[in-house]
Design a protein that fits this description.
About 5% of the residues lie in helices and about 50% in strands. The strands form 2 sheets. Strands 2, 4, 5, 6, 9, 10 and 11 form a 7-stranded mixed beta sheet that branches. It has a 4-stranded antiparallel beta sheet with strand order 1-3-8-7, with no helix packed on it. β7 and β8 form a beta hairpin. It is globular. With about 120 residues, it is mainly beta. The termini are far apart.
């Protein structure tokens, strides 16, 4: 069992930045990722990092503005979002997948655990 808790969401003006954090009960053997769900839309995977070698993956829609990183010593994963846009408004979820999280996200396979989410609202 992996317990995930997100933090760092809030109300931000367009063009601003945020850093979301996700603290996990454990991350050994699990890759982690960030998903988001905008109002009226399906949840989408936006970024993930593997536990094996730290490789990262980003959805094309966020590639130039989102950065995922992890601190294994703190069992924490971060998502830095720059140049926020109103269309980034969503609930952001942290997730963990056993094994290769990049393969899991790339091929839309299910992640094993999700957090409760943190809301990001971007005002124009």
């Amino acid at each position: 069992q992996v317990h995930l808790v997100e933090s760092g969401g809030g109300l931000v003006q367009a063009g601003g930045s945020l850093r979301l954090s996700c603290t996990a009960s454990r991350l050994s053997m699990y890759g982690t990722g960030w998903f988001r769900q905008a109002p009226g839309k399906e949840r989408e995977g936006v970024a993930c990092v593997t536990s094996i070698n730290g490789d990262t993956y980003y959805a094309d829609s966020v590639k130039d503005r989102f950065t995922i990183s992890d601190d294994k010593g703190k069992n924490t994963v971060y998502l830095e979002i720059n140049n926020l846009k109103p269309e980034d408004t969503a609930v952001y979820y942290c997730a963990a997948a056993y094994g290769n999280s990049i393969t899991t996200m790339r091929y839309h396979l299910p992640f094993d655990y999700f957090g409760q989410g943190t809301r990001v609202t971007v005002s124009s």
